[in-house]
Amino acid sequence: MGSVDTGAAAATVTVGGRPLTLDEVVDVARRGAPVRIDPASSEAMRAARAAVDELASGARAVYGVSTGFGALASMNIGVGEREALQLALVRSHAAGSGPEVEDEVVRALMLLRMQTFTTARTGVRFEIAERYVAMLNHGLTPTVHEYGSLGCSGDLAPLAHCALAALGEGTVRTRDGRVLESSRALAEVGLEPLRPAAKEGLALINGTDGMLGMLSLAIADLRSLFRHADIATAMSVEALLGTDRVFAPELHAVRPHPGQRDSAANLAALLAGSAIMDSHRGEECTVVQDAYSLRCAPQVAGAARATLAHAVSVADIELGSAVDNPVVLDDGRVESNGNFHGAPVGYVLDFLAIAVADMASMSERRTDRLLDPGRSHGLPAFLAGSPGIDSGLMIAQYTQAAIVSELKRLAAPASVDSIPSSAMQEDHVSMGWSAGRKLLKAVDGLTRVVAIETMTAARALEMRHPLTPSPATARVLAALRETVRGVGPDRWLSPDIDAAVDLVRAGALLRAAESVVGALR
Questions:
Q1: pLDDT band at 165 (very low <50, low <70, confident <90, very high)
Q2: Going by C-beta distance under 8 Å and a sequence separation of 6 or more, which residues neighbour residue 75?
Q3: Residue 292, Cβ neighbours under 10 Å: how many?
Q4: Which of 135, 259, 299, 498 has the fewest C-beta atoms under 10 angstroms from its C-beta?
């Protein structure tokens, strides 16, 4: 589960006084960037805390301060029991089950919850925010489980596991991968357990930070992955003796979706200077139109980019929001609200899963075409060195097909489901956490599908020798060949596929292409 890069960490991220950026979330979650709180946030936090303390000592019924929770909201809690109420809430809600969630997701969740604390809308003490800073900077990641959040009243169980660890209970995973009791891990870095004051237990668990964290990470991956998909597409078009005329800017100006124009421009740039493309431009070429998986690639990639742009717009709003219930307003009032509902994030998580599945489906179709001697325009069956004796990359396409089939199942939206909870008080939930979990799996699947297409197209380009590919695709091919061997007798394919996946995930092939054509769009 230790997925956080603790090597060359990014610059310190300052939280408070402004929205976080998507890049900052990724820097902290994935790259281990240190965190600090803007000192100016402390005064506003203390003022909000004073408003909560006043309510906590009075008789007025305020949800989560002087009452129970959920369906127990009508039960009054005596002044002397209100702090115990908060600790009981955290303990009872830390009810997750199943496999551990990735460290980077938990770190993103903690950062985003701490960002909400610094807005002074939650009424927590400054010490609570400081505890999350310390845990992030010391690499102490609470154990959070796959199942437990319905995405309404926030990501309750995942956030409760984080809160429990911050208070000195539950377990954490250390930077070096050990799983320790939280109290021991905190002691090792010189921290004492905390005890939540009035409202703080509720504020620690009542946010959409898990699903927003997963959206932030998925956006970062897809921004790169969609450009990698253009690279794989260009290599396939080239290897299949397709045409690049359909990528001309004047064609995309008549249907001017921005993402479509960007993808087409990428493809044209990547194919420029290709001797393979030049070999079939003459009048003797009888292929009038390529198959849809080649010809319509910018249209599909453009639609995926538009979906991603919408997701970014939602994420940007969420990153500047304070999600809690009740919330402390500027005039000191503490009011109940429904901002914890995860629908805005859940919808775009599901929408992205649809785009990911379709991108992967088109990629798999190009791979299958490369391997089929009836449609590959002269390439050997399955790109085998000795077809018949060797099966070449036949089963790599099977792997793609299996992943694409899974991605189609993952594209079924989670956010259309709702299971009532808390004795029908919470009678409609978003399932946004589930949408986030399946999107992360889908992003991993698309990464593997694009890597296999790239690996397949690279072998096909080599088989067009003595014709040479474009300078850009040749550079990608060379980068791939540093770890993935070319055509030869059949061998164990899984290590080749894994190596190609690692190159895509690390952005190595994108950097290779951009070293020739400049930044892709």
A1: very high
A2: 67, 68
A3: 12
A4: 498
Structure tokens at 199: 């409202």
> Is 63 annotated in the active site?
yes
Q: Long-range contacts: 54-61, Cβ < 8 Å, 24+?
A: 55/198, 55/334, 56/82, 56/197, 56/198, 56/199
H or E element that contains 325: none
Name the one residue in this structure whose structure tokens are 């075409």: 369
Mean of per-residue pLDDT scores for the chain = 94
Q: Which of 63, 132, 147, 398 is catalytic?
A: 63
Q: What is the spatial distance between Cα 346 and Cα 439, in angstroms, rounded to a whole number? A: 10
Phi-psi region of 74 (alpha: psi -120 to 50; beta: other; left: phi over 0): alpha
CB 427 within 8 A of CB 202: no
Domain match, 235 and 182 both: no
Rounded-to-integer distance, Cα 218 and Cα 213, Å: 9
Q: Rounded to whole angstroms, how far apart are CA atoms 159 and 163?
A: 6
pLDDT of residue 286: 62
Give which of 288, 151, 236, 134 is closest to 453, Cα–Cα. Answer: 236
In-domain check, residue 1: no
Structural domain harbouring 176: 13-207
- Domain of 270: which CATH number? 1.20.200.10
Q: Both tokens of residue 60?
A: 């007025």
- What CATH number did the domain enclosing 170 receive? 1.10.275.10
Same domain flag for 324 and 223:
yes
Residues 276 and 140 in one domain: no
* DSSP H helical ranges for 70-139: 82-93, 103-117, 126-137
Last residue of a domain, one of 207, 233, 263: 207
